[in-house]
Specification:
Number of strands: 6
CATH architecture: 2-Layer Sandwich
CATH topology: BirA Bifunctional Protein, domain 2
Largest sheet: 6 strands, mixed
Strand order of the largest sheet: 1-6-5-4-3-2
Shape: globular
Strand content: 15-25%
Number of domains: 1
Helix content: 40-55%
CATH class: Alpha Beta
CATH superfamily: Bira Bifunctional Protein, Domain 2
């Protein structure tokens, strides 16, 4: 993961940086690794270069989660996983939005609080949080992030809602107890970016080291 953390940055600033970093990395790969990408375009994904050019030059769509759910419901497509408010978007939903509906990258934001961690900033509707995911064609989600909750009382209340043991998170609460600033961050899945930029369809073919569940020792 590539994980920037930005002080003095709200959700909009977070989305701006996420868009900029994807565009920059895509354009850099096209400029510096042209021969390699042409090889992948020849043998792996014949539409690769047009996909990359589209991402590097596009203005990303910004779409509230509620609107994304409605678009998916009205798409007429028979998805494997149910589309409904309060359910997370699956890869098939994300790829439909980016590849078929908009045909460009999409940033979905303001997700329901019930499907997101306690530290994401609660919106004024008390139902959603300032979270965002960047979706790109052929992959789906490539970045996930949020504005963090800087208000101590609301943070503590969210922990109570989720039945979290505050005594075990005293150190996190202390980071807000004496005041803080608005701040945001996101994680970019680097393996997913390699998938996207090469056109390789299976993430297992691009990860540098094998991963197996429940085998982490440290």
């Amino acid at each position: 993961m590539v994980e920037p953390e930005m002080a003095f940055c709200d959700l909009e600033g977070n989305m701006n940086l996420a868009e900029e970093i994807i565009k920059y990395m895509t354009a850099y790969a096209m400029d510096q690794c042209t021969e390699d990408l042409e090889l992948f375009a020849k043998f792996v994904d014949k539409g690769l270069m047009s996909t990359l050019e589209g991402v590097a030059s596009s203005d990303f769509v910004r779409l509230p989660y509620t609107d994304a759910v409605e678009l998916l419901k009205k798409s007429g497509k028979n998805f494997e996983y149910e589309v409904a408010f309060g359910k997370d978007l699956q890869t098939e939903h994300e790829r439909h939005l980016a590849e078929h509906h908009f045909k460009k990258p999409v940033i979905v934001y303001n997700y329901p609080k019930t499907i997101k961690p306690f530290y994401m900033r609660l919106n004024s509707d008390n139902e959603t949080v300032a979270a965002m995911d960047v979706l790109v064609p052929k992959v789906g989600e490539i970045i996930g992030g949020s504005q963090r909750e800087e208000r101590f009382d609301i943070l503590a209340s969210r922990m109570d809602e989720m039945s979290m043991p505050k005594d075990e998170y005293w150190w996190y609460l202390d980071s807000r107890r004496y005041g803080t600033v608005e701040h945001s961050g996101f994680g970019l899945g680097f393996d997913r970016f390699i998938m996207f930029v090469t056109g390789v369809k299976n993430i297992r073919d691009v990860i540098p080291f094998p991963r197996t569940p429940n085998k982490i020792e440290f």
